[in-house]
Amino acid sequence: MQAMASPDTRSIALSLKNVSKTYGRVGALHNLSFSVAEGRFFVLFGPSSVGKTTTLRLIAGLVAPDRGRVEIFGRDWTNGTIAGRDVSMVFQSFALYPHLSVYKNLAYPLCEARVGREEIDSRVRETAAMLRLDTKLDRKPGTLSGGEQQRVALGRSLIRRPRILLLDEPLTNLDAKLRHEMRAELKRLHRQFGLTIVYATPDELEALSMGEEIAVLRHGGVVQTGTPDELYETPRDLYVAGKIGSPPMNMIKGMLAGDGTVIESAIGPLPFARRLNTAEPGEAAVVGIRPSDIRLATGAESGVTASIAMLEPLGDITVISMEACGETLRLVLPEAAASGLERGQQASIVLDPSKLHVFRASNGQAIT
């Protein structure tokens, strides 16, 4: 496999342009568009029934779009055959042959492609060693752990040496420890071989920890594409703001004051570090702020008076839910800073004005 290209020299491995797909009266995809650079770990992120699996099946050639265009390495594959795409897909269900050994499961795609026996043996053993399955080759899938079965399914796709690897929620059926291990394994394989990977998941942690670039999907379309940092720091609308970040962003309803630098809200005026030039005075708005951008006031510092409603100790940090004038705000404190705080206690909190996000109440779009 080729070494990963530098970001400046990457070509476009995959491009979907205004793709739509319906099943009967149900719309699965609506004008879906995105591009993936060669060697990129690209994540499709969104809840169930948002179109992730349909998108992967379109790329693999298992279904054809009703409208739009699918290009793979610059070639139009919109209505092309499955063969020749240099694409391999790992499904959510492992889809292993239970009556075949691990060796024969790995060898199956090469046997179907009529690869020579010596080449098959060499590639099976190479792939098994890479996935730490070399001592399991004589075992049947039913005798393996969930993580081992997942690695066999992954190996059966990798053994074909595809240029693009599609992964459809591959870790959903694993427990938390195995998911953590397999996330690390997939990132290692990506670094080692420079594969172009398109990874579908409804799990925010998977998306943020694995994806070099993430497309946030909603109702069969892309809401926003960006790096994990870009999606976290500059969400384009309320949907993305609420999906990225844990604990989720606090949302405060309000109204833009006349000078464009303050939102009037139930907890008081919220001043910004910048002027909102694209909003009208009196316009209804929603202010978002991350829990990590709220802190307890110190000394004689003025802030918003709030009551502690709930404490959630999470080891080295504590998530605190506070109620102020009908609004519930969550903040994150180091364990040491939260010690001694109790439910029902009054405290003054400070919101960082440089970290406020403002969205239109009418359509959820960010106000710049």
From TrEMBL:
Belongs to the ABC transporter superfamily. It comes from Reyranella soli. One of its GO terms (cellular component) is ATP-binding cassette (ABC) transporter complex, substrate-binding subunit-containing. One of its GO terms (molecular function) is ATP binding. The keyword Membrane applies. Pfam families: ABC_tran, TOBE_2. InterPro entries: AAA+_ATPase, ABC_transporter-like_ATP-bd, ABC_transporter-like_CS, ABC_transpr_MalK/UgpC-like, Mo/tungstate-bd_C_term_dom, NA-bd_OB-fold, P-loop_NTPase, Transp-assoc_OB_typ2. The keyword Mitochondrion does not apply. It is found in: Cell inner membrane. Its main location: membrane. SMART domains: AAA. Residues 14-244 form the ABC transporter domain. Keywords: ATP-binding, Cell membrane, Membrane, Nucleotide-binding, Translocase, Transport. This is ABC transporter ATP-binding protein.
